[in-house]
Known about the structure:
Elements: H1 2-8, H2 10-30, H3 56-60, E1 110-115, E2 120-122, E3 127-129, E4 135-144, E5 150-157, E6 166-171, E7 175-177, E8 186-188, H4 196-207, H5 212-219, E9 222-223, E10 228-230, E11 236-246, E12 251-257, E13 267-271, E14 275-280, E15 283-288, H6 292-297, E16 307-312, H7 319-329
Parallel strand pairs: 3-8, 10-15
Antiparallel strand pairs: 1-16, 2-11, 3-4, 4-5, 4-9, 5-6, 7-8, 10-11, 11-12, 12-13, 14-15
InterPro entries: PRC-brl_dom, PRC_barrel-like_sf
Protein name: PRC-barrel domain containing protein
Organism: Trinickia fusca
Amino acid sequence: MSGGSSRQYVPQRILLLLLLLMLAGCSSLFGPRPAPETEQTAAPAEPASEAAPEPASEAAAPAPASAPAHEAGETRRVPPRQAARAVPRRRPTPAPAPAPATRPATPPLLSMRTLSSADTHGLLDARVQRPDGKVIGRAIDMLIDASGKPREMLVNLTGFMGIGDRKLRFPWNAFSFNATGKKAPITLAVAPGRPPAAEQAQAKGASKPDTPASASRAAHLLSLIDATVERGNGTRVGRVIDVLIDNRGDPQAAVIDVGSLIHERRSVAADWSALHFVDKDDSLAVQTELSDEQVHAAPRYAPDEPIRAIAPAAPASTSGAASAARAASR
């Protein structure tokens, strides 16, 4: 019985073995395929010079034991290395040049004022006419008082062929002035048909020069032409050779001959504000504070050139007040 039963189980074992073989074949067909083996390309080694320097402490430290090793099938990714930025070199800033030492401004020697040639003319030898335009003589002098205000004019009345010329003094307010006209610049108010001598005699009689008061008044009038100009210390500056007046008859400057035996002959126009009239030896005298240096630096006066009247330069603090006072005096 035992032998028969074992034979009875032989076919079943064979079938079971075949079934196992079939199942093994199906698993090999339908199971996951193993990954193909690929050759890994080693990454090119970087030059030692371009490698970023690492701190010595990190290079010497051993790799951590817990770091997983790269598997055989994986490709190692190297992170891109950032290019080092070139830092521009800063050029050294040059030191600023030291500022040049400023020299103190030299104060001006003179104060100059330009006079209009259309409104200014010389008094000496200017033609004097009647209101009707007839020339009767020429102006030869101006007499002023202690304040510098004109009081009288000395006129040379023309005779026939130079015979009978007379020098007569007339009140300053008897004249009118015009520098722009083509006719005579000075007009004497004389009534038609009346001789100028009669006008002079009438003015002379009205003033009564023979009285002591009239004689004292005449002594304190300065004949300006040929007057000597001095400084306060008595040194000589020059001689007045002409007076420049405007169309209102107001004096603007005095032309002074400043030449001497040592220096060349030249003339300058001294501003009227630069002149002072003082009592000296019971008469009037002309003074100015123009120094020799200022006179030599003054421009030369010429009748046919622009007229520049000079005066001593005033200090900066008082120049405005001096200009206002000069304007008020006119």
